[in-house]
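Trying the structure run again after the queue cleared.
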Amino acid sequence: MKYCIDTSALIDLGERHYPERLPVFAPIWRHVYQEINNGSIVSVDVVKSELESKADDWRTHFLSQANGMFHMDRNIESEFASLVADVESSSHLFNVNKSRERFMSGADPWVIAYARSKQYTVISAETKTRGLWAWCNMQCSECKSH
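Done. Tokens:
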């Protein structure tokens, strides 16, 4: 199975729940980087930009190790355009001042577009957008702390 991961899931993984700086989590991080390197965990360049916008030691290190996981191509862009058209044609389901603008302003629609273009599963830590994933007819694995 292949996964397209959003910013919130990466931040939860690396900064909140399993800090890479702690040796006890080294096996988790070896596995994460292995899955990134073999292409099983991917994301879009918009997620990379979001991580770079608030760079700290962990994000800088992560981006140097996982740079190859971030993609953008014509298929993703085409799927994004389709997603935008779907959102616009269903504007009655979105509060123009809140839900739709918040959804469209971040990486979420790009993550969904990538996953839809490749039939990947989305990994997200955002519970506030769970309904949007369902609306987009996406399979989404929610990250939870244990």
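Residues 3-142 form a domain with the Rossmann fold fold (CATH 3.40.50.1010). Worth checking whether this holds up in the mutant runs.
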